[in-house]
Amino acid sequence: MRTVTLLLLVSCLVAACAKPMTLSDFRFRCRFADSSSGSFDNLSGCNYQLQENVCREYANVLSQQYLSRDECIQGCRNVQRSFSLQATPMGCQSYLNRTRTICEQYCRQNYQ
Q1: pTM of the prediction?
Q2: I need a surface site. Which of 6, 13, 103, 112 has the fewest CB within 10 A?
Q3: Per-residue confidence at 6, pLDDT binned at 50, 70, 90?
Q4: Sign of torsion, CA 10 16 20 25?
């Protein structure tokens, strides 16, 4: 029992030391975002150019400084909204949702 308690304590300490996502990490995760949700989206329908534009726009939003986490998250949601009409007919709404989630994760890790 004592060993288990010690292992749990060490695990919690290590998890607390995790570094926040960097902009470079975000760019990688955005470019290779895949929604394995079993949706009807066709990732191949999300052409390379659209994916590049989406990731570039998110990176532009994240490269700005915000006063709060909520402002950063709102920036992510604005990007999703701006590409939504373009992405839906191509069958890649799920990709857009997934990349927004990654953007919001960046905000949550980098702003209090």
Answers
A1: 0.77
A2: 112
A3: low
A4: positive
Q: Return the structure tokens found at 25.
A: 């990490």
Answer left, alpha or beta for residue 91, where phi above 0 means left and psi between -120 and 50 means alpha.
Answer: left
Instruction: List the domain boundaries for the chain.
Output: 20-110
CB 89 within 8 A of CB 51: no
SS (H, E, C) the chain: CHHHHHHHHHHHHHHHCCCCCCHHHHHHHHHCCCCCCCCCCCHHHCCHHHHHHHHHHHHHHHCCCCCCHHHHHHHHHHHHHHHHHHHHHHCCHHHHHHHHHHHHHHHHHHCC
pLDDT digits (tens, 9 = 90+) for 64-97: 999 999 999 999 999 999 999 888 888 888 889 9
